[in-house]
Amino acid sequence: MSKFVPQPADDVCIATIRTLAADVVGKANSGHPGAPMGMAPAAHVLFSRFFNANPKNSKWYNRDRFVLSNGHACALQYILLHLLGYKLSIDDLKAFRQIDSLTPGHPEAGHTDGIEVTTGPLGQGFANAVGLGIAQAHMAAVYNREGYDLINNYTYVFTGDGCLMEGVSSEAASLAGHLQLGNLIYIYDDNHISIDGDTNVAFTENIEQRFLSYGWQVLHVDNGDTDLEAIYNAIVEAREEKTKPTLIRLRTTIGYGSKQQGTHGVHGSPLKADDIQALKSKFGFPPDQTFHVPQKTYSVYAAAAARGAALEKQWNALLDSYAQKYPTEHAELTRRIAGKLPDGWEKNLPVYTPADAAQASRKLSEIVLTAITPALPDLMGGSADLTGSNLTRVKSAVDFQPDSTGLGSYKGTYIRYGVREHGMGAIANGLSAYGGIVPFVGTFLNFVSYAAGAVRLSALSKHHVIWVATHDSIGLGEDGPTHQPIETAAHFRAMPNIDFWRPADGNETSAAYLQALKRNTTPSILSLSRQNLPNLENSTIERASLGGYVLHEVEGEDLTFVSSGSEVSIVLEAAQKLQAEGIKARVVSLPCWSIFDQQPEEYRLSVLRSGAPILSVEALATLGWQKYSHEQYGLEGWGASGPYQKVYEKFGLTGSNLAAVGKKVAEFYKKKGGEVISPLVKAF
C-alpha cells in the first residue's frame, strides 16, 4: 500500500474549498453549503492524489469519472472544476444558480464542462455510476490486450444519506455487487443530517450490513473532518479490491467550521454574513474578502491537472501503438469513442409488404435487433426480468456477467437487470454517458413509469438510451388494468427531448429503430404491442421516419382519421366501412409526435390538412391528441381484464363502432357549417 505523505498546502486547500462553498452559496442566497464544507477533506485528498483526468480535454476516454450523487452539494463540484482548470472561472462561481450561468442549481451534464452525469434528484447519480462501471468493465474486456491496458479508469462517487434512502440506489447497489464491479468507489458522507433534521427520525438502518449483504467491501473513516491519512488509506484499499465495489463510510460534520456545524440549519440554507466572516478567520483567511483563492491552492490543483495531461499523453501513445498491432480493434474503438455508428448499418433494417404475416410489434422489434446487432457492436441491451416477454435478447447474445459466475463474461452485451426498472433506467443513463455504448432496456410500458425519474434525466441530459416498452395498451388483455398503461404515453409525450414511438407495423418499427439510433442526443421509448398487427399498404420506413404520414389518401374527404400503433389497422377498417356508405375518410398514421413536429409546416399541414374534421383514435387516454385533431376517441378511465379482442369491443375500438363514430363526426361538422381549419394552424 502506498503511504500517505502530507503536503504543506493541504490545510490551505481544504480551507479554500470550505470558504468558497460558503461564498458561492452566500452570494446566490440559495443552495447547500453544509455538505461541501464537510466533504472538503475527502474531495481534496481524492482530487489532489488519485483522480486522473485532463481538464484541457474533459472527454479523454480513459479519464476517471466523478459523480456527485448528492447533487445538492454541487457547489463542491463547481469549486473543484474551477481549481483544476476546467472551463469554469471565479465569475462563474459568483453566478451560481443564476439564469444561463455555467453553474446551475444542480450539476447538468453537457452544460458545465467536466460534469459526467446530471444529478440532483437523489439516488440517480448513485445508479448512473453503476452504469459507468459496467461500461468500463465491458469496454476493457472487449478491447484491452496484453500490454495494452487502454481502458482501466475508476469511477468515484460522493453520496449521502438522502441517496441511500432512495430505492433506486438499493436497486443499483444490489446489481453492482452481483456484477462484482471493483472499479466503483463510493464515499458516503455519513453526517447524520437531512433536511428534516437528524437522520435518526427516519433512517436508522445499518448501512454497513446492508452493503455487505449486497456483496460490497465496506471501509470506515471515523474522522472525515481532519484525518487525511485515513481518507487516503481507505481510497488506496478500495482501489486494490478488484472484485467488489467499495463503500467508504466517512463520518463527517456537516458545515464544519461554521457556527451551525453539525445541524440541519447548514444543510440547505446559506450561512449568515457574520458566520462566513468567522469561518474565514478561523481558517486564517481574510474575513473581508470573498471568493479568495490562495496561489498555493491553485498550484496544488495545477499539479493534479498536469498529472492528468501527462497520463493522457501516455495513453495516446499507447493507443497509437495499439493501432499498429490491432488495426481492426483500433478502428472500431475509435469510431465508438467518437460516437459514430458504422457506415451502412441501416441497410440491415427489415422491410415489409402487406403480404408478410401479421406479427406483434414486440416481435417485430426482436427481428430488428436480430438483424442489426451483428453490424452494431455498440448495442448493449437488457431487460428488467422480462426478457421472454420483451424479446430483447437475440439468440447470439452473451450475458454481461463476471467470468467467475459461469453465466457469461464482461464481453457480453446483454444485462440481466432483475426486477429493477428504476435502477435499470438510471444505469442505462450511465452506460450512455460513458461513451461508446448505445444502451437499450426492456420492460412493459406500464413499468417505464417506475423509472420515470431516470427517463426524465435521460431526456434532460441528452443520453442516447432506447426503451423497448412492450405490452403497450389494453391490447395486453388478461393482465388487466394494473398492467394496462392508459396514461403513460401522455406523460412521456409531454416530456421535452424524448421520442415516443408507437409503430403500427413492421416498416414503422424499423423506422422507429432507425430514428432512435440516429438521434444520438435524444432518448427514445418504443411502445410495442403484445397482439399481432398486419403490415399495412403504403407504409414505408422512409415515410414513417417523418413521424407522421398519410397512409390512405382520398380527395374531397369528409373525415380524416389519425391514429398510432395497434389502432391504425382498425381505423383503416373503419374507413373502408365508411367508403361503402359513401363517406370519404383519409387515414393518417402518427407513430411519433415529436418527430412529426419537427417536419416543415408545409408537410405537416399536408398530412393533417384543413377542409374536414380530424378524429384521433388510440386505445389510451386522449390527452394531447387535441393538438392534432378536432375530436378524440380513446379511454376515459381504466381498462379491463379479458382477451384483448373482447376488451377492444368493450371500449368500442372496432372497425364498426369507429365507422359509426366517424360518421357522427363528419355529419356534425357538415351541419355546423363553415370552413374546418386544421388544428395545426396556430397564431404562434
Describe this protein's structure.
The chain is of the alpha/beta class and 684 residues long. Helices cover 41% and strands 13% of the residues. The protein has 25 helices and 20 strands. Helix 1 packs across helix 3 and helix 1 packs across helix 11 (295-325). The protein is elongated. The model has no long low-confidence stretch (mean pLDDT 97). It catalyses: D-sedoheptulose 7-phosphate + D-glyceraldehyde 3-phosphate = aldehydo-D-ribose 5-phosphate + D-xylulose 5-phosphate. Pfam families: Transket_pyr, Transketolase_C_1, Transketolase_N. InterPro entries: THDP-binding, Transketo_C/PFOR_II, Transketolase-like_C_2, Transketolase-like_Pyr-bd, Transketolase_bac-like, Transketolase_BS, Transketolase_CS, Transketolase_fam. Its EC number is 2.2.1.1.
DSSP summary: helix tally: 25
Radius of gyration: 28 Å
Alpha-carbon distance between the two ends: 66 Å
Class from secondary-structure proportions: alpha/beta
Helix fraction by DSSP (H/I, runs of at least 4) = 40-55%
Strand arrangement across the biggest beta sheet:
10-9-11-12-14-13
Shape: elongated
**Average pLDDT number:** 97
